[in-house]
Amino acid sequence: MTGRIAIAALLLALAACAATLRVDSDFDPAANFAGYRSFAWIREDPLIQSSASPTPISPLNSRRIRDAVELELKAKGYTQNPDRSAADFVVAYTVGARDRMDATSYPAPFYWGGYWGHAWYGSSVEVHSYREGQLSIDIFDGKSHQPVWHGGATKRITESDRKNAQSQIDAAVKAILARFPPGGAAKG
Fold this sequence. Notes:
alpha/beta; elongated; Double Stranded RNA Binding Domain; 28% helix; disordered N terminus; 188 residues
């Protein structure tokens, strides 16, 4: 019975990990984030895509991402400047997705409770395929036009995520921009 409880706990832990949003960020330590007060989009369509392998994104999700980024930056006290040449920083984003596989091996001897009163020993390999999505936000200095900050979120995409795109996008953008500005630098 203890073995079954341990396996059930492991499966619950793995399920929790599968739905976790992983966030990371990087920045230029020479950038003066404290001087940033206003932002603009890098261009009319701020989605940066690789011509080698573009990931299709619906116009609805593109609008959702833009709205979520604007909302988060404004909540942080930044103002949106319609004149991108006068903004302190400009923002772009990237969306990607790829198919992934996880393999789990249970080496011998592996005990699984009793089978008609007998223990079973052996090995097993389980393979799971899934879709992983990524949203990245990039910030460029408005004067030097150099990249100064990058943040990204990666998550296993489920059918529920597809049906609730708005909440997933909002959560990802909020988690990414929680790291901007780096080190909690205050606006000037």
